[in-house]
Amino acid sequence: MVFCALALLLSSPKLTWVKVDEEKVRARYFQFESPSAQEGAFNKALKGACLEEIQNFRNRTLPGASFDLSTLLSSCKSPVTSALVTVTVKDQDGPVVRRRALTFGKVGSEIRQLTLKDVLRPEIDPSTFVLGVVLPAVNAARRKASLPDLATLPVAMFDQFVPTTGNLAWPLPAGISEIAPSLFKMPWTVVASHLDPAGAFKEYAIAGKVVIPLSGMVTWVSREALPYGSRLEIRLLRDREDSLDQAVATQYIVGSSPPIPFDVVFPVPPIPEDERFYLDLRITFEGKTYYRNRAAVRVPVEGWQTRHEIQLDVERDPGL
Known about the structure:
By secondary structure, this protein is an alpha+beta fold. It has helices spanning 5-8, 22-28, 37-60, 116-119, 126-144, 188-191, and strands at 66-74, 81-91, 94-107, 110-113, 162-163, 167-172, 182-187, 210-220, 231-237, 249-254, 260-268, 276-285, 288-292, 297-300, 308-314.
């Protein structure tokens, strides 16, 4: 059964002035059907988080205020279950945005919400990571926002994180990395050397691997909208003529209207410095290819130093 925490409370008289389309809410607040043990634990935590946010709003009882709760499931290569919960409350003082992250995984034989201690190398203390790696990056972001540097950060704040295809991200309150609340992101290439090769994010740890970072923009000329559920497939090949099943690594990004930006990291086994890879990019839907780059793009082993713009061609035979 698809669960919607908000829909269960719509019958309460105290919430009659909250405008919500129940059908849209049910579609938006997805939870796993027939869940695994990990997804079941995640479902329970997400339900609790939604109910807590709703109760916080009900306790405010501000006439005329509006409330919006959204959840976004995150996807990455690691075997974790993760989501970002965003709450927006609007009243006479304007909108207030708050985010919280839920990332569940297995630690030993236990399934629970992960913290920094669970994903960092055993010899790295979370406070060392936050103050030595995250703080300099936060201060760099603050300078761009014309904010003074911070001398320290609350380490516990960074125990809530969400993984994405290209980054590890933290929901931060106003005044930390920006004036407004923000989702602060650090690329896997930056945090990879600090991750436990045997932990939940072992796919991104660089122990025994070479990390190839790639940033780009995919475009194509077409007036047709992409089917809902389409995706951008990015494959790293050793040879320009390799078939797709010979790919060294593959990343997937949700399809959208062009241009589609991408920031991906490919961890690969150690390779000679003079070796080159090739990149195959294509837009697919239900196993059919609609657009692709017909000449695989050359990739140096150190990755790209600048963002590349890549043009895709219409695929005349979608079955390819």
